[in-house]
Amino acid sequence: MRNGGVSFWWQQVGLPVPADRLDGDVTCDVAIVGAGLTGLWTAYYLHEADPSLDIRVVEAEFAGFGASGRNGGWLSSELPGSARAYADVAGEAGLAAMRDAVRGSVHEVIDVADREGIEADIRLSGVLYVARSQAQADRLGGELSAAQVAERVRVAGAVAGHYDPGCARVHPAKLVSGVARAVRGRGVRIHEGTRAVRIEPGAVVTDRGTVRAPTVLRCLEGFTAGLAGHRREWLPMNSAIIATAPLTAAQWDEIGWAGEELLGDEAHAYCYAQRTADGRIAMGGRGVPYRFGSRTDVDGRTQDWTIESLRSTLASLFPSLAGVTIDHAWCGVLGVPRDWSASVAYDSSTGLGHAGGYVGSGLTATNLAGRTLRDLVLGRDSDLTALPWTGHVVRRWEPEPLRWAGVHTLYRLYRAADRREDAGLARTSRVARIANRVAGR
Known about the structure:
Layout: E1 2-3, H1 8-13, E2 26-27, E3 30-33, H2 37-49, E4 55-58, E5 74-75, H3 83-116, E6 127-131, H4 134-140, E7 144-145, H5 146-152, E8 160-164, E9 168-169, H6 172-185, E10 189-191, E11 196-200, E12 203-206, E13 209-212, E14 215-218, E15 235-244, H7 249-255, E16 262-265, E17 271-275, E18 281-285, H8 304-317, E19 326-336, E20 343-347, E21 352-356, H9 362-377, H10 402-422, H11 430-439
Parallel strand pairs: 1-19, 2-13, 3-4, 3-14, 4-10, 6-16, 14-21
Antiparallel strand pairs: 5-9, 6-8, 7-8, 11-12, 12-13, 15-18, 15-19, 16-17, 17-18, 20-21
Domain FAD dependent oxidoreductase: 29-376
Protein name: FAD-binding oxidoreductase
């Protein structure tokens, strides 16, 4: 089994060699920090709207090194954050508009991939959520019975389910590399191997020179904490994934997963999975939730106990796969604001903007954020700039050691709640309700 190496997805397509490193000071119209999907989509749509713009993207490693090339491949219509938080800002009408915009972004990504010739194993196959206890079933409120769930996928212990057709499976590295290729094809410079150390109005200071621009956009998601002055803004939360060896036809028949729908559950320490284009199961969940001091990993290597925990979860869902070979394991970070709700913002007086904090739902939200930043930077009043995440401000996370102790305590509480519900508790555990309140979810 390979552990790390950024991700299984990147190992499949080949790790890029950082190119076009910055060589001294430059000036441009728009400087974007971070060549994940947020930065790349923003560059794509800005250049599409105004091809005269000189746009530069600076990236510490290579385009797609972070969550954009490590995620579970869910092009999902799930909200990037708390429905309650968005409703508090804009009411039920604003929340409905946000839901519609996210759902529409699934199709926007698919349309751009078709238009730009990006082959990323995209299948609009929907997502199946399963409940494996009465408490989970009550939270899910799904329309599918246990028998109907089994007609799609035979998940052990499933008592109810919900199917959402508006979601797609995707190969993350193929998608982000394809978007990067499309951006470069438009003439946007992506300076890889160039680490930003400070952002200020009119400039991005890097380890290889300063990029001066009237518009500077921070698109670092889980790596935001590594930038000077932003350590407590978004928590770099860790998630880990394993990929099995390709399953045999008999194994697929045994578990009944004949389609390509995504699969998730309603546990508090939830899991998420996809059937890959080459016949594997890639399944993720929480490992070590947070590293002291907002540190992030180097190359995606995860802990042995996390791998065993995910292996155990896979066997619990599909007992017949208890001995299946795990070919690869890796991890990555996602950005979590204090109220667990994403934001997009731009201050025309300073030229500074940002987007992120997607709490694990970024594969779709990055596209919506890129189009929203485009409109904000160009001074457009649009339906996108009116969405409730625009200009959303939350307080900072607590200082250490409170931050580390709090996050680890929260996830111990969530796992304790799952154990109680799995043991027969017919309602959502009070332990989880308390944890949600403390977490700000």
